[in-house]
Amino acid sequence: MSNAKNRKTQPEQHKMTTRRDVLRYAGAAAVVTPILGAPAIVRAAGTKRYLKPIVAGLNAKEGDPSYISISRIPEILKEKFDIELEIQIHPNSTLGTDISQLEAVQTGFIDITSNTTSQFTVFSDAYSVVDLPYAITDWDMANRLFKSDLWKQQAKVFEAATPLVVLPPVGAGGFRMLWNNKRPLPSPSAVDGLKFRSTRSPLVIELIKNWGGNPTPLAWTETYNALKNSLVDGFHVQPIWTYLFKMYEVLKYATEVDASFSVQFQVMNKNTYMSMPEDIRNAFFEAAQMAADEGNAKDQSLENSYKDQLREAGMEIYTPSAAEKKEWMAGGEKVWESHGSSIDKAVIDQLLALR
């Protein structure tokens, strides 16, 4: 309560009157009990209207497939189910850093957020299997995974550990590439201590170390300036994000290591989800699946085009030879040896069966 009291003494322009204000000025770090209430449902001319706006804080830009997978939900609800529902989307991490938005959706300050599976490992390791290097081999396998019993099974594990509901996932630009602004990296021997921005996932950190790099966990919003100011030399990120966030302005070289297929993990606050009447809740999830399907189709079609645009922007993209690829994969195999044993073997077997 002391935090709330202190905020009342701030100048008028700093008073917090919305969840967005709370996130912008408190960084979503304060522990405050969210205000919950059953929103009114209005029916008119056969249309159901869910009156409580849903707030989504996303790290994606408008037009990104993971943005589409949330923004299309209200449109599909109207088109397919005759339900009107508003989602207020705040893209580009305007409501906080990666981690603060993940924390905010758990407390209920925001209702929906998404990020890569590796960012969620600090809350639950249910999807660590997805982040094992070279676990997902291509888009076809990813699409099978998203609709599999394995994904649904792990969703229950995740939901049991967090106050969240797992929404249908989307790809996040396909395979990550290893980017830097120092030199070409045909094999791990060329890495030689370069500093790479990373997430806080132990698997991601170890993979970079196995390649000879120095992992530096940073929020995505801090990455551009970190590269510009030489706090880090590169990162392991997919082409779409490198292009849309203009990282090519502070990078020069990339290597197609094909180690990590990025999955954008989408979640919703459980209280918000359960406050919906059952028929609207069920329709919402179906609409979310349809929107995710659209986002995935677009994402898959764009992966190579973003590589081409990055080349046009002056990036040098290197494809390793078969022998060099084995060297990169050796670093991934070490991650399996150190972390694979901590993951239920049955889970790994289910994943491998999807290949």
Estimated helix fraction: 40-55%
Q: Quaternary state, please?
A: single chain
Nearest-integer average pLDDT: 89
> Structural class from helices and strands?
alpha/beta
Ends distance: 52 Å
Biggest beta-sheet profile? 6 strands, mixed
Order of helices and strands: HHEEHEHEHHEEEHEHEHEEHHEHH
Tally of separate helices: 13
Backbone shape: globular
| Percent in strands | 15-25%
Record field, number of beta strands: 12
Low-confidence stretches: 1-38
Radius of gyration equals 21 Å
Summarize, please.
43% of the residues lie in helices and 20% in strands. It has helices at residues 2-8, 19-26, 65-81, 98-107, 139-146, 149-161, 202-210, 223-228, 239-244, 270-275, 278-312, 322-339, 345-352; strands at 41-44, 47-57, 83-90, 112-116, 164-175, 177-180, 195-198, 214-217, 234-237, 253-255, 261-269, 316-318.
Written overview of the protein:
There is one protein chain. The chain is of the alpha/beta class. 43% of the residues lie in helices and 20% in strands. The chain contains 13 helices and twelve strands. Strands 1, 2, 3, 4, 5 and 11 form a six-stranded mixed beta sheet that branches. Strands 8-7-9-6-10-12 form a six-stranded mixed beta sheet, with helices on both faces. Helix 7 (202-210) links the parallel strand 7 (195-198) and strand 8. Helix 7 (202-210) packs across helix 12. It starts with a helix and ends with a helix. Residues 1-38 have low confidence and may be disordered.
